[in-house]
Amino acid sequence: MVLPALEAAERLAAEGLDASVINCRFLKPYDEAMLSSVVQECKQVVTVEEGTIVNGFGAMIARELQAAHPEVRVHCLGVPDRLIDQAPRAEQLSRYGLTGEGIAARIAALHHEESFEAR
Question: What is the pLDDT at residue 115?
Answer without folding.
Answer: 58
